[in-house]
Amino acid sequence: MNTYDVCIVGAGVVGCAIAREMAGRSPEDPLRIVVVEQQEGAGEVTSRRNSGVLHSGVHERPFSLKERLAREGSALAVSYAIEKGIPLLRTGMVIAIAWEDIRRGLWREASTLQRLWFNAWRTKTRVKFMTPSGLRALEPRLQACCGLVIPSVSVIDPRAFVQSLKADSESSGADFAFNNRVIGITEDDAAYLVTTDRQKFRAACLINAAGLHADEVAALAPPHRKYTIRPLRGEYYELATPDKKRLVERLVYPALPPHATGKGIHFSPRPNGQLFVGPNEVAVEDKTDYTSRKTPPGVFVEALRKFVPELEERDLRWAYSGIRPRVMTGDGCKSDFIVSVEREDPPLINLVGIESPGLSAALALARHVGDLPCIRRRFRRTGWRPLSPGRYER
Ligand SMILES: Cc1cc2nc3c(=O)[nH]c(=O)nc-3n(C[C@H](O)[C@H](O)[C@H](O)COP(=O)(O)OP(=O)(O)OC[C@H]3O[C@@H](n4cnc5c(N)ncnc54)[C@H](O)[C@@H]3O)c2cc1C
What we know:
The strands form four sheets. Strands 1, 2, 9, 10, 11, 12, 19 and 20 form an eight-stranded mixed β-sheet that branches. Strand 11 and strand 12 form a beta hairpin. Helix 1 (13-24) runs parallel beside helix 6 and helix 1 (13-24) packs parallel to helix 9 (358-370). The chain has two domains: 2-48 and 158-228 and 335-391, 3-Layer(bba) Sandwich (FAD/NAD(P)-binding domain); 93-151 and 230-327, D-Amino Acid Oxidase, subunit A, domain 2 (D-Amino Acid Oxidase, Chain A, domain 2), CATH 3.30.9.10. It is α+β, with helices and mostly antiparallel strands. It has helices at residues 13-24, 65-84, 99-103, 107-122, 132-138, 158-171, 214-220, 297-304, 358-370, 373-378; strands at residues 2-9, 33-36, 53-54, 88-89, 93-97, 128-130, 146-150, 154-156, 175-177, 182-187, 192-196, 200-208, 229-239, 251-254, 266-269, 275-278, 282-283, 316-327, 338-344, 347-352. It has ten helices and 20 strands. The model is unreliable at 389-394 (pLDDT under 50). It binds flavin-adenine dinucleotide. Flavin-adenine dinucleotide binds at residues 9-15, 36-39, 44-47, 49-53, 55, 181-182, 209-213, 217, 234, 279, 322-324, 354-360. Flavin-adenine dinucleotide is lined by residues 9-15, 36-39, 44-47, 49-53, 55, 181-182, 209-213, 217, 234, 279, 322-324, 354-360.
């Protein structure tokens, strides 16, 4: 049996970021870390099936974990991408209200801009209020009566991001065990015994970063905490008509009413020049159901033609979908990220409901986990200390 200090379940962006952080924190006396992953590589599911947006956090409740970690994590990710040469599109985000919405009397959308502005003010995030002509100067085809622009928002190549985090972790000594699905976890003499469908690992600390399956992994590990993750699919179409591939250059989001659970179907440009529209929200039964009953392209055109009337159904080609690991709270509201220390000694940490903006938050989430008192206590003997900010910031 292989013995480690830390076992991380899941090699998505979060598991890889935590492995990198933990492996880099004690370079003179490195921790033995293993990341156990059921797929054949890192970032094969949700972490590559998203919009790649490094969010500012203004859509989230100020100072919630989602807001704080997205704000901090996005800044870290931008520095990291520049340092590592990861493709990055520094587009800024436009959140707009269409003339059509105002004509239809959708004043709640207008109050949304006010709320986002207030969130930005509270968290000291730079935003600009835009008039129709200001918006047209940015995006000539955009028809909107007003909007906010958040200049700091960028789009990263999520696959390259995950691969770079994995490579950093490996070069600091972490092991990756792919094609290993965790099927059992027991406690054994102040450590966890992690059984996969192929082998066993023993580790003094267990971190559950299993994304969509984090509820199932949490149920395996003592004290068997119960969470329920509801899979919520988000679908994307690509702009395929050659002269419309650059219909817009920036991220263009709608201002949704306050009760909306997502951020809305948006124009989603990527660092490689592709332009997508999406994602919507479709409840699915199966956590791997990416393609059954695809939503027709007309739904996406309907959502975005009010901003760009040239958009037509025939311009769109099915692209891909991703599945959000949504945890609903008892009152039916969207949950904050859950980072739960289920046991202090030996440490067991469950990360549950890491939906959007989890990609943005990954590097800050990793710091947050590394700074947890139970982790610091457990690894004090190995010279445990945070990575110096110089490793991250420009
Ligand atoms: C449609 C969509 C759009 C999004 N857009 C954005 C965005 O623009 N910006 C943003 O910040 N975030 C976005 N997100 C959210 C972001 O993608 C996620 O928050 C992030 O990828 C979560 O990473 P993760 O590592 O927690 O999970 P995952 O990527 O799901 O990784 C978990 C890993 O655990 C593995 N695993 C599960 N069970 C087991 C087991 N029993 N044994 C071994 N391995 C196991 C899985 O195979 C998987 O590789 C979006 C998500 C979706 C679905």
